[in-house]
TrEMBL record:
Residues 113-419 form the Exostosin GT47 domain. This is Exostosin GT47 domain-containing protein. GO terms for cellular component: Golgi membrane. GO terms for molecular function: glycosyltransferase activity.
Length: 504
């Protein structure tokens, strides 16, 4: 039976339709590919001049940015706010929140991007301290009691500079999309306190520093937003464990940006710090990033099994170091050196790490140290021997992909550690080295701050805390005195005597 004849006009229509469909599919695939490439370019920022040196970035910041008029009109209060101002702010926040909830913000109350209000604090808390560092950092004989260079320690803990410099930069110069600066307090999810606590601690005379701490405390506590929340939605950078120590108990409700939790009690009192409230941030690495080209050249030449350079005798949890040194002394393919973070120490540490498969990261006076992040950016697999260590961004990053965790008890057993390391297969080592190359970007502070860099991960982690902060804030406003309530993360020490602000 002959096939059914299709008229020529219908054939043309069918052919045209198929062609149009084909072009549509090709166009869709092209757009998808372009979007992916655009996203890739956005995260790689191949055409952006990125500065990762704290000193170089600060020089540029003070010369180029601080020379301009940096004043931005906002509603920071210059004097003490009374109950009326606090109530007005609370009402405005409530009304704006309801508008966001009912009329178009699908992410409220989490907030995407995160909205942060940066206090316009007097320059003695901000620019004056940056200039103090800038004018003295070349004084290489300025050392701590254990011989560490003071200005290098400040660089290691300079997270307050990197976060603040990015927040106050013009939007046209910023690359992060996870956080925006707002200029009205009722719009904010969180409030940033731009006080350089570490610079003031190390570079100011002791009594002068304590006086400045008390001034900063009073200034912040006078703000209506602080009075409204008791500081629960305020961010306080206290990354060095000695910084702000004399008054920080009066700001214990705030979100502290910390190097670790220090369960020894030497630096933070019980109830002051905990993971539900605070955030662990990485140290600024001492060493230069070993990039893709560097890794391809150094990885085949890593002949040392295990490397460590640093202080061999420490206090508190760091006593494990001397025990490990005794155990490893004289072992083949192991280098253990005494050293500090000075310029000569940097070159020695960088050379040693880039020649080694594994880099030991034991506890020091506190559970953490910059050495862990030096190893990561050097492509040297960290061997973490610190039982109480808390790690930065662990809600996002999986450290088991890039580091080995060894208990202190195992590390000091005769022969245990070297047998363990020598038993790791070349395939596992290669995989961990590849992961280190991917992870290193998460620990490199920079100007401008990069997507997926540490500044970006800070805001991603803090966004996850916002709903819980709002819950405890509202709850605290209505729970009556003496009521029996379930214990939560911010009432663990409800039976202890509450602190009051010091006389100023």
């Amino acid at each position: 039976m002959a096939g059914k004849h299709i008229p020529r006009s219908k054939s043309r229509i069918l052919l045209y339709g198929l062609s149009l469909f084909g072009f549509s599919v090709l166009f869709f695939l092209f757009c998808l590919s372009s979007n992916r490439q655009s996203a890739r370019s956005q995260f790689l920022n191949l055409n952006v001049n990125v500065e990762t040196s704290f000193v170089a970035s600060l020089e540029d910041f003070l010369a180029r940015k601080a020379s301009r008029s940096t004043f931005v009109r906002d509603d920071t209060v210059s004097g003490e706010a009374g109950e009326v101002e606090v109530r007005k702010l609370d009402n405005r926040i409530y009304e704006m929140g309801m508008d966001r909830l009912y009329y178009g913000d699908p992410y409220y109350p989490v907030g995407l991007p995160l909205k942060v209000y940066v206090y316009n604090m007097p320059s003695k808390f901000t620019y004056d301290l940056l200039w103090l560092f800038r004018n003295t950092y070349k004084e290489t004989d300025n050392l701590t009691s254990n011989g560490s260079p003071v200005h290098r320690l400040i660089e290691q803990h300079s997270i307050d500079y990197w976060l603040w410099a990015d927040l106050i930069a013009p939007e046209s110069e910023r690359l992060l999309k996870t956080v925006v600066r707002v200029h009205r307090q009722e719009e904010a999810d969180l409030f940033y306190i731009p006080f350089f606590t570490t610079i003031s601690f190390f570079l100011m005379e002791k009594q002068q520093c304590k006086a400045l701490y008390r001034e900063a405390l009073k200034w912040v506590q006078d703000q209506p937003a602080w009075k409204r929340s008791g500081g629960r939605d305020h961010i306080l950078p206290v990354h060095h464990p000695w910084s702000f120590k004399t008054v920080r108990r009066f700001m214990k409700n705030a979100i502290w940006l910390l190097p670790d939790m220090d369960s020894t009690g030497n630096w933070y009192k019980p109830g002051q710090v905990y993971l539900e409230k605070d955030l662990i941030l990485p140290y600024v690495p001492n060493l230069d990033l070993c990039d893709t080209k560097c890794l391809s050249e150094t990885n085949p030449k890593r002949r040392t099994l295990l490397f460590f350079r640093g202080r061999l005798k420490r206090n508190a949890g760091g006593k494990i170091r001397s025990k490990i040194v005794s155990e490893l002394s004289g072992a083949d393919d192991v280098i253990i050196e005494e050293g500090t973070a000075g310029q000569g120490g940097k070159a020695a540490a960088q050379g040693g790490m880039r020649k080694s498969l594994f880099c030991m990261s034991p506890a020091g006076d506190t559970p953490s140290s910059a050495r862990l992040f030096d190893a990561i950016v050097s492509g040297c697999i960290p061997v973490i021997i610190s039982d109480e260590l808390e790690l930065p961004f662990e809600g996002i990053l999986d450290y088991t992909k890039i580091a080995l965790f060894v208990s202190s008890n195992d590390a000091v057993k005769p022969g245990w550690l070297l047998k363990f390391l020598r038993g790791i297969s070349p395939a596992v080592i290669k995989e961990m080295q590849q992961n280190l190359a991917k992870y290193s970007r998460h620990f490199m502070y920079s100007s401008p701050a990069q997507p997926l860099g540490p500044e970006d991960l800070v805001w991603r982690m803090l966004a996850g805390k916002v709903v819980n902060i709002k819950l405890h804030l509202r709850r605290s406003q209505r729970v009556v005195e003496g009521s029996r309530s379930l214990c939560t993360c911010d009432c663990r020490r409800a039976n202890t005597t509450s602190h009051t602000a010091p006389a100023l």
